[in-house]
Specification:
It contains 9 helices and 11 strands. By secondary structure, the protein is α/β, with parallel strands linked by helices. Bound molecules: NADPH dihydro-nicotinamide-adenine-dinucleotide phosphate.
């Protein structure tokens, strides 16, 4: 048995960041400074960390990024006013609404609030429709985690064409858009979820497995073949009992039987942050 190859985000980002820096520089030389507005309501600790990471990375490539931290008690009218102000401001190229929103705003469906060309999350139905139809170009707004997984796979020479891919989790931000993206890339995709039966048998048949369910260390040895041939993208970000971050996969338990796996942290997570800046540059180019 061999130890799995670890698919870290850092070398991928190190290589790609120069491209983004150059693109940002070139936009600036034309008088366009890519500008991202991140709307954060309240102070959910996870959200504060994510928004800060997105800002830090956007600034690293030379873009401008402001976090608009609205009070926990912000009402619907005020919240929508802020979003629309940015929607109508030509100097703003990208807008992110950090989720989850606090209770006071939980009745709002945010998916279509940001105009499609500034929708760096890729959630707007117009952007989703393009993904659905496979009408993707260089500057398409593709949801950040699926996009990050594809960027990472490319770097590590992982080709999806003709592969059996099992994605576990069908959320609108990870599983579902990833299933479309990989299907466009000629993978044979199975999208599994909480009602899927015999999940262990299914994951065992896959060439590539993506776990995105939010359940700490659920995927143990029994879910995978024992022949060092399967590749795993672990999207989950969870706290384990010892308080440490962990994925949906029981990393220590399976690392000797799969071919490659993304660690948590330092795997898929940073790729998501990277994709935000990539989408921002695409938005500014438009
Ligand atoms: P959601 O809670 O929106 O969706 C979870 C999905 O997993 C659902 O489709 C659900 O099925 C399915 N599911 C839940 N339990 C099981 C189970 N036991 N067996 C099979 N399927 C199951 O989650 P998100 O997509 O938002 O996030 C998933 C995880 O990824 C979380 O840990 C989150 O923190 C992390 N995440 C990481 C990111 C990164 O950059 N690395 C980015 C975004 C999220 P059903 O539809 O039937 O309910």
């Amino acid at each position: 048995q061999k130890e799995a190859k670890l698919l870290y985000a850092q070398p991928v980002i190190e290589k790609q960041v120069e491209v983004l820096k150059d693109e940002c520089k070139s936009l600036k030389s034309k008088g366009i400074t890519p500008c991202l507005k991140v709307i954060l309501v309240g102070n959910n600790p996870g959200s504060v960390i994510y928004t800060n990471s997105k800002k830090k990375f956007a600034e690293k490539i030379g873009a401008s990024c402001e976090i608009i931290n609205l009070d926990e008690s912000t009402g619907e009218e005020e919240f929508l006013k802020v979003v629309n102000e940015f929607n109508n401001d030509d100097l703003v190229h990208g807008i992110l609404i950090q989720l989850p929103l606090p209770k006071s705003l939980s009745q709002i469906d945010t998916t279509d609030l940001v105009v499609p060309h500034k929708d760096v999350d890729g959630f707007h139905y117009e952007n989703v429709a393009k993904l659905y139809r496979g009408q993707l170009g260089e500057t398409s707004m593709i949801p950040c985690t699926p996009k990050g997984i594809v960027t990472m796979a490319k770097y590590y020479g992982i080709d999806f064409a003709g592969k059996n891919v099992v994605i576990v989790g069908r959320s609108l931000i990870v599983g579902k858009p990833l299933s479309l993206l990989l299907s466009n890339l000629n993978a044979t995709v199975t999208l599994a979820h909480s009602k899927t039966q015999n999940l262990k048998d299914l994951t065992k048949t896959a060439d590539i497995i993506v776990t995105a369910i939010g359940s700490p260390k659920l995927f143990t040895k029994e879910y995978f073949r024992d022949d060092n041939s399967q590749i795993i993208f672990d999207v989950g970000i969870n706290r384990s009992e010892d308080g440490k971050l962990c994925g949906d996969c029981d990393f220590a338990n399976i690392k000797d039987q799969v071919a490659a796996i993304t660690p948590v942290p330092k795997g898929v997570g940073p790729m998501t942050i990277f994709s935000v800046s990539q989408n921002l540059i695409s938005a500014a180019k438009k």
